[in-house]
Request: fold
Amino acid sequence: MKSFSRFMKMSALSVLAVCGLVSCSEDGKETVSADLRLVPDKTVIEPNGFDAVTFTVEYDGIDVTDESSVYMEDGTPAGFTFTTDAEGSYGFYAEYKGERSETVTIVATSTMPEIPEDPEPENTAFSRKVLLLQFTGTGCSFCPYVLSALKELEASPVRTQFVKVACHSYNPDDKAYYSGPLADVLNEEKQYPYVTYDLDKDLYTENNLSSQYLFSQFRSNIISETTNRPALAGIAASSALIGGNVVVSMSVKVSETGEYKVAAWLVEDGIYDEQANPNQVPGDFDTHNDCLRYAQYTGSGKSADYTGVSLGTVSAGEEAGYTFSIPVEEGWNAENCHLVLLVTAEDGNAFYVNNVAACEIGGTVEYEYE
Reply:
């Protein structure tokens, strides 16, 4: 297992912005930094004047709150807590030693998505799904072998045992390109094509580029993973598009006492971009689905932590929840997007994805039992 202990320099709760390259601000004095991050303890509040979000500030994963300042998107000074009695979306950024963070968005709404009622409150025998994470790109000449194998996998009986996410991190001119450091964290040698599952296990590291061989390997490992690491938690959720933000309320119920984390990723289907295929692997690979658009993380670079927001210790049979807000950026087609919801659990000093669910925007997910 890859150790995630190095990704946990501090315990932070949520980050909304995906950092880009360093660039100058309009006044030419500040820079937007890939290392500086404004971290809210929640991203959705009720507009009642009492429900508050509290901010901390990280620089390269280190807490620098005491040396930083927080501003609203229009430059108005703000404190490290925020309340409001008016519904809407509010942008904030941090400044530290002449640099500024990306803007994060806090949504104030009185219409929280309602999580569906648990159909079996006493049951904790949850169905298990694997997170299948594919590192790829339109310029990757060998990726069609994996794409072919994954298409076959999605048409096979094991399609109900995994949720796929495609991280297009190979070439920046890819229309589905994801600029966050996920590839740096999980794909240390930057091999392409490359597949992992549950954030900590390699599925494909060999040079055998037979699509049939890859399909067999993927299938075998998914079955092994669901058998050897059973579901400790189930996921229920509801989501809605509020303004330009996807708001998703998650609830996790667990069968074993421990610390759990949750994460909400946004992926987009139907992105058309010509796929390099010099080996003429049979199939149409120019329409790309399950493309990662947003995944919250803390830290930066190889030290980024994608394991989610901590729910603390949750006792067996109990539930815990969190509400996320994800801003839909210009150029993304919200109608083609859906959510991938993760619950991560401890294994030694590391966290891995113990269960995963897909949720449509505006849709709901119920606890799924065996």
User: Anything to note?
Assistant: The radius of gyration is 20 Å. Confidence is low (pLDDT under 50) at residues 1-29. DSSP finds three helices and 27 strands in the chain. The longest strand covers residues 258-268.
